[in-house]
Amino acid sequence: MLMVLPAHAHHILGKPAYNSGKENSSTPPSMQMETQIGDYLVNFMVFPAFPKPGVQGRLHLYAARLDNGLSYQGKVTFKVRDDRWFAPDAEVLGTHEIDDKVYRQGVVFSKEGDYIVTAEFQADGQPYIIDLPLRVGEPAGMMPIGVAAGAIVLVLLGVSTAQRRRLMRLKAVRHHEAARSET
Predict the structure, then answer these.
(1) Is residue 153 helix, strand or coil?
(2) What is the pLDDT of residues 7-48, one digit of tens each?
(3) Angstrom distance (rounded) from CA 142 to CA 41
(4) CA 97, 49, 142, 118: dihedral to nearest 10 degrees?
(5) CATH code of the domain covering residue 85
(6) pTM confidence score
(7) Do 64 and 116 sit in the same domain of this protein?
(8) Are 70 and 93 in contact (CB under 8 A)?
(9) Hey, how many other C-beta atoms are within 10 angstroms of the C-beta on 61?
(10) Residue range of the domain that includes 114
(11) Which of 2, 5, 136, 173 reaches 20 to 30 Å from 127, CA-CA?
(12) Parallel, antiparallel, or unpaired: how do β-strands 103-108 and 15-16 relate?
């Protein structure tokens, strides 16, 4: 007798499924960074696709050793800070243990802005720090860049016109001097 058991897909292309059943699995990550750092290959993601202030989001981190592919089994601390000069120190969001090969952290940003989300862990006595830039809310408009580009174009046009007039005046003066010297 042949018995068929349902297959539970846990990994796609060797990586764990990042969403559990209680999360919206159709939501793509807004930012996804995959990097090799030290002895680990790290995949760091932020959900939902377009984070907005006051809306629940989540951070996921997957870290696997390069030499044998085994997942990191320690604790990971998630932090966030404003992405600006002289910003206050990073705020600790939480420290988590692995859950189904993924470290998860819920997060709600209170206001729009640019942030740096950080995941930190220690393995074999070495610190690992992964930073991920994140924009919360609508991206800044093109207005400041457009105004700056327009101002530069106007300055260049003004300089070009002034130089052209100067050259024309110089040609006229030389022409008049040449005409006087011929007579």
Answers:
(1) helix
(2) 444 444 444 444 444 444 456 666 788 989 999 999 999 888
(3) 36
(4) 0
(5) 2.60.40.3340
(6) 0.62
(7) yes
(8) no
(9) 24
(10) 11-136
(11) 136
(12) unpaired
Task: In whole angstroms, give the CA distance from residue 146 to residue 151.
Answer: 9
Tokens 């699995």 label which residue? 25
85 phi/psi in degrees, rounded to 5: -70, 145
Q: Are residues 109 and 165 in the same domain?
A: no
- The two three-digit tokens of residue 44, written as one number: 């760091």
Residues 100 and 156 in one domain: no
What is the DSSP code (8-state) at residue 87?
P
Amino acid at 21: G
145-164 tens-digit pLDDT: 777 888 888 888 888 888 88
User: Domain tally for the chain?
Assistant: 2
**Lowest-confidence region among 14-23, 26-35, 66-75, 93-102:** 14-23
